[in-house]
């Protein structure tokens, strides 16, 4: 019984460690994206594919390989590969109910790590990560984006 209990506790702790992967989130407001004409997300009616359609070619020009955009229940995402590291980049757009031209845009980046990296705290997503720096620079250099906020969340 003690061995089984220890295994359950270890599995629960491992699950918590795996779920506590740090994410980079950048949000801003913009009227650049035509949310009304976006392809519909068949899982959940969340906008944002046009954000990925805009960002992904720019990432490619910066040496980051990007997969096709796919849908998820929280929005849209692509995988990005840079320096043999894999990232998930999520896109969500929340239309402003008062000003129909503006939307809050949220881009979230997660860095994939293997079990050994997670267990030993290696290769965490940090503010000096090259993909974070490239995305941040792209967003900050786009004059049509306002009220830009960056943060890390667990």
Write up this protein:
- This protein has 154 residues and is an alpha+beta fold.
- It contains four helices and seven strands, in the order αβαβββββααβ.
- Strands 1, 2, 3, 4, 5, 6 and 7 form a seven-stranded antiparallel beta sheet that branches.
- It is globular and about 45 Å long.
- The two termini are 33 Å apart.
- Mean pLDDT is 85; it is low at 14-19.
Which helices and strands, and how do they pair?
Blueprint: H1 2-19, E1 23-30, H2 49-61, E2 65-66, E3 70-72, E4 75-82, E5 85-95, E6 103-111, H3 115-119, H4 130-140, E7 146-153
Antiparallel strand pairs: 1-6, 1-7, 2-4, 3-4, 4-5, 5-6
How far apart are the first and last residues' alpha carbons, in Å?
Answer: 33 Å
Mean pLDDT: 85
Tally of DSSP helical segments = 4
Number of strands: 7
Order of helices and strands: HEHEEEEEHHE
Task: Please identify the structural class as seen in this structure.
Answer: alpha+beta
* Poorly predicted runs: 14-19
**Which value, in Å, is the CA radius of gyration?**
18 Å
Helix content: 25-40%
The profile of the biggest β sheet is: 7 strands, antiparallel
Shape: globular
Strand content: 25-35%
Give a quick set of tags describing it.
154 residues; alpha+beta; 7-stranded antiparallel sheet; 31% helix; 32% strand
Quick summary of this structure?
The chain has 154 residues and is an alpha+beta fold. The protein has helices at residues 2-19, 49-61, 115-119, 130-140, and strands at residues 23-30, 65-66, 70-72, 75-82, 85-95, 103-111, 146-153. The two termini are 33 Å apart.
